[in-house]
Amino acid sequence: METSEGRGVARDELKADLMGKSPAELKQEVIAKLTQAGQILDAKAPGDAPAFKAWLKGVSEQVAEAASEGGFLGFGGTKVSDAEKATIAEVGKALGVA
């Protein structure tokens, strides 16, 4: 990630990995990767793992809160949908964070 070339390679590999997959498939892959990451953190950095995993879950919450759904011209609507709440819960479960 330190060079433009490295970032380009990472972007291209990520793009190739994501192409042709449904949102549901992508979600399941991400949840599986988060579970894996949580296990690695617990094994390799047990002192730092809880704070880092809480931060990751916080990122998912901030993303869900970034825009309202429904409403009109930014008024009304739902800040965080039920589907987003369920996904945040899945992220927390995958990371072992309440």
Structure in words:
α2 packs parallel to α4 and α3 packs antiparallel against α4. The chain is mainly alpha-helical. It is built from four helices and no strands. The model has no long low-confidence stretch (mean pLDDT 90). The chain has helices spanning 4-18, 23-44, 49-64, 82-95.
What attributes characterize this protein structure?
single chain; 98 residues; mainly alpha; globular
User: Rounded to an integer, what's the Rg over CA atoms?
Assistant: 16 Å
Number of DSSP E strands: 0
Structural class: mainly alpha
The poorly predicted ranges are none
Head-to-tail CA distance between termini: 32 Å
Order of helices and strands: HHHH
Query: In terms of quaternary structure, what is this?
Result: single chain
Please state the overall shape, judged from the principal axes of the Cα atoms.
globular
Determine the number of helices (DSSP H or I, runs of at least 4 residues).
4
Instruction: Report the sheet-strand fraction.
Output: under 5%
Helix content: 55-70%
Indicate the mean pLDDT.
90
Number of domains: 1
Biggest β-sheet description: none
